[in-house]
Amino acid sequence: MNTKIILAALALTFAPSIASAMGCGADHIKQTSSCQSGTSWDAEAGACVASPTG
């Protein structure tokens, strides 16, 4: 019984570090909620750019 409790505690202790190592953090994603009117998101530039009208 004690072995199961110890293994469960270890798994819960190391779960966040394992998830972080696998890239589950939001630091690697740059995202905008919305661009201003007349602009759109440009993935290459990584910013909102003026939308062509026409």
Give a nutshell description of this structure:
The chain is α+β, with helices and mostly antiparallel strands and 54 residues long. The chain has one helix spanning 2-21; strands at residues 39-42, 47-50.
- Percent of residues in β-strands: 5-15%
* Rounded radius of gyration (Å): 21 Å
Give unreliable regions as ranges. none
Number of helices: 1
Helix content: 25-40%
Largest sheet: 2 strands, antiparallel
Describe the protein.
The protein is of the alpha+beta class and 54 residues long. 37% of the residues lie in helices and 15% in strands. The chain contains one helix and two strands. It has one helix at 2-21, and strands spanning 39-42, 47-50. The chain has a two-stranded antiparallel sheet. The longest helix has 20 residues, at 2-21. The chain is rod-shaped and about 70 Å long. It starts with a helix and ends with a strand. The relative contact order is 0.10.
